[in-house]
């Protein structure tokens, strides 16, 4: 099997690769979003603490 | 055992326990994904009828299985929250909703992309497809209801009821292809049968991908849950200590 045959998927390349691409995008986003959320939460916590000290 | 469970009910212990578990799910996910994808896309032979288009199965079927599995986890956690009023189970149920919605969306979208070349249509109001769409709305409804309440504990009471009532949809999805014979094909993989409809050369990568999706779910669930604990416990001393440690 050549590389171009592999990507051609017997003519079904559009359906196959869009399916896999969609899965990649959705699952990657779902993995990255809690990492970013955590960073944001920790930043918020830091601000809260500083405010507490001022008062 | 019982002591272990009561200890986990405390959010602080739950947070650190999840943190310890994380690498045990994250790394196997990566390995299983790579092996499953290579096996499914390269090693597995093309189908004699559907040619290479059938390779969508390695995404579609694990996603569809997970869409139901995640719902069961969510409903069980919701039931636990109602019975024992444990906060950790509320956190798990809430974390399940967006993940389950993502899997359901993937199952529907890849099904549509598979349906177009094979059935000649993107969508049909077939029993399986419709009940899966209802599942997506259950997840979205759960999230909407959850965000409608200011107080997390009040929200949990309402969302738990929704999650538990919605369980009736799960057997409907599962048996839809047997009860109503419309467009969606019958089950390919059946646990109780000796003779499988699918050849092992395709069945093995499918099972690897299904396992990879399970591990992925556990990984992301732990991450979402830990965040919600930090959010809920932001006023406590241990969270401030944890912030300084990171």
Q: Which consecutive residue ranges of chain A, at least 5 long each, have pLDDT under 50? A: none
Q: Count the E strands of chain A.
A: 0
Number of individual domains of chain B: 1
What form of chain B results from the Cα inertia axes? globular
**How would a crystallographer describe the biggest sheet of chain A?**
none
- Helix/strand/pairing class of chain A, anyone? mainly alpha
Instruction: Give the end-to-end Cα distance of chain B, rounded to a whole number of Å.
Output: 31 Å
Q: Could you tell me the mean pLDDT of chain A?
A: 87
Low-confidence stretches of chain B: none
The count of helical stretches of chain B stands at 9
Mean pLDDT over the residues of chain B: 91
Spatial gap, N to C terminus of chain A: 70 Å
Percent helix of chain B, as a range, is over 70%
For the largest interface, the chains and their residue counts are: A-B, 28 and 36 residues
Radius of gyration of chain A: 22 Å
Structure description:
The complex is a heterodimer of chains A (55) and B (246). Chain A is mainly α. Chain A has one domain. In chain A, 87% of the residues lie in helices and 0% in strands. The radius of gyration of chain A is 22 Å and the shape is rod-shaped. The model of chain A has no long low-confidence stretch (mean pLDDT 87). With 246 residues, chain B is mainly α. Chain B has one domain (56-187, 197-245). Chain B has nine helices and no strands. Chain B has helices at 2-8, 11-43, 57-84, 87-119, 127-147, 152-165, 169-179, 200-232, 237-245. The mean pLDDT of chain B is 91. Chain A binds chain B through residues 1, 6, 9-12, 15-16, 18-20, 22-23, 26-27, 30-31, 34-35, 37-38, 41-42, 44-46, 48-49, and chain B through 41-42, 46, 51-53, 55-56, 59-60, 63, 98-99, 102, 105-106, 109-110, 113-114, 116-117, 216, 219-220, 223-224, 226-227, 230-231, 234, 239-240, 243, 246.
């Amino acid at each position: 099997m050549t590389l171009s045959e592999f990507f051609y998927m017997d003519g079904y390349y559009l359906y196959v690769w869009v399916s896999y691409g969609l899965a990649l995008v959705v699952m990657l986003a779902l993995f990255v979003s809690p990492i970013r959320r955590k960073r944001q939460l920790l930043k918020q916590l830091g601000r809260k603490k500083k405010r507490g000290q001022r008062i | 055992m019982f002591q272990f469970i009561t200890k986990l009910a405390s959010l602080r212990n739950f947070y650190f326990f999840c943190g310890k578990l994380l690498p045990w799910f994250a790394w196997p996910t990566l390995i299983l994904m790579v092996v499953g994808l290579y096996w499914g896309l390269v090693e597995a032979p093309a189908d004699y009828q559907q040619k290479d288009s059938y390779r969508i199965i390695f995404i579609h079927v694990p996603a569809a299985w997970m869409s139901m599995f995640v719902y069961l986890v969510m409903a069980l956690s919701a039931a636990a929250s109602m019975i024992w009023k444990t906060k950790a189970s509320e956190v798990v149920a809430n974390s399940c909703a967006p993940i389950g919605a993502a899997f359901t969306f993937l199952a529907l979208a890849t099904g549509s992309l598979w349906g177009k070349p094979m059935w000649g249509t993107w969508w049909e109001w077939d029993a399986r497809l419709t009940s899966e769409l209802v599942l997506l709305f259950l997840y979205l409804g759960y999230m909407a209801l959850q965000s409608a309440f200011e107080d997390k504990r009040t929200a949990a009471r309402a969302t738990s009821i929704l999650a538990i009532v919605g369980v009736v949809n799960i057997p409907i999805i599962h048996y839809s292809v047997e009860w109503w014979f419309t467009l969606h094909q019958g089950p390919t993989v059946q646990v109780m049968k000796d003779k499988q409809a699918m050849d092992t050369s395709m069945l093995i990568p499918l099972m690897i991908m299904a396992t990879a999706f399970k591990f992925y779910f556990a990984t992301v669930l732990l991450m979402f849950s830990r965040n919600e604990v930090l959010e809920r416990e932001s006023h406590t001393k241990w969270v401030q200590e944890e912030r300084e440690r990171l």
